[in-house]
Amino acid sequence: MSLLVGDQFGQLFTSFEHTAFRLEVRDRYDEAYENESLRRFVAGEPDDLPWMQDWLTMIRGATTEGRRFSRVRVVSMPLTDYSRFGLWCAQFTNGAGEDIRYLERDPAGALKLPNHDYWLFDSRRLVRMHIDDADRFLGGEVIEDPAEIVNHNYWRDAAWHHAVRRDDFAKEHLGLV
């Protein structure tokens, strides 16, 4: 199995035509660039999220071109520090044009969503995310099996239908928008 990493993986976000959807099912991701921002968030310290600026610029550009990013985050309750941090960060990505929504783990289980993360580009290009036991991203595997692609489209639609808009979820669970 060959995994896309680095620039190869990054090209996925500039080469799609219409839609990029992500399903996130983990309560934590260990990204070195986020660790200091997570520490600051938990400590209540200000942070300008320098690691996030390129992502926000890319989303704004895609949105201007008429391309759409969306995401559903499956979260455990009560929220972990990492999930609270992600919920706080989502205000900026939503502001840039990405539509991030939240789905609690129990309802997600009832929907029989997969237990792996994936990106689905233009409803036809499926990239399964590989993440190790220490929550580190290893790379993305392109899946070409049409039946698997159809299943992941179904899961996208089911998750999206049951997910809650970021602002509504933040207001309900954290008292913030």
Automatic annotation (TrEMBL):
Family matches, as Pfam families: DUF6879
Superkingdom, taxonomy of origin: Bacteria
Q: Which ranges carry the DUF6879 domain?
A: 7-170
Any idea what this protein is called?
A: DUF6879 domain-containing protein
Give the species: Actinomadura syzygii
